Amino acid sequence: MSKKVTFAAGRNIAMKVPPHLYEATVQFYRDVLGLREITEHAPAVGFEFGSNNLWIDSVAGMSQAETWLEVVTDDIAAAAQHLEAAGVVRRDEIEPLPQGFNAFWVSSPASIIHLVCQDAQSWA
């Protein structure tokens, strides 16, 4: 009998923003909303967003902002098999992951990108 795959919401949310909107977006979260900036992963720009981390990334070639979410699992191989069997689209080409980072990208039916990673790794 195979092990049941479990998923949980991760702590990280990434907002991918076109370069022409990047500074205004960072200013909105930092100066207008007054969220506490996360500085320990500079040059990455992030903010405490309740119990989550909101990362703001400038991405060339984008026409509008996208929000990406993190999902954690206790068994990355079983998760990959489960998602493939469910017809979930892998999007590993979307952004390279660091060597040794036990994770992959998928897209929801609504085209929201999700990072699926082993337990509580941090993508920052």
Structural class by secondary-structure content: alpha+beta
Q: How much of the residues is beta strand, in percent?
A: 35-45%
**Element-level helix/strand string:** EHEEEEHEEE
CATH superfamily: 2,3-Dihydroxybiphenyl 1,2-Dioxygenase, domain 1
Q: Which outline best applies? A: globular
Mind telling me the C-alpha Rg?
Answer: 15 Å
Describe what this molecule looks like in 3D.
The chain has 124 residues and is an alpha+beta fold. It has 2 helices and 8 strands, in the order E-H-E-E-E-E-H-E-E-E. It has helices spanning 19-32, 76-85, and strands at residues 7-17, 37-38, 45-49, 52-58, 66-73, 89-90, 103-107, 113-118. Strands 2-3-4-1-5-8-7-6 form an 8-stranded mixed beta sheet. Strand 7 (103-107) and strand 8 form a beta hairpin. The protein is globular, with a radius of gyration of 15 Å. The model has no long low-confidence stretch (mean pLDDT 91).
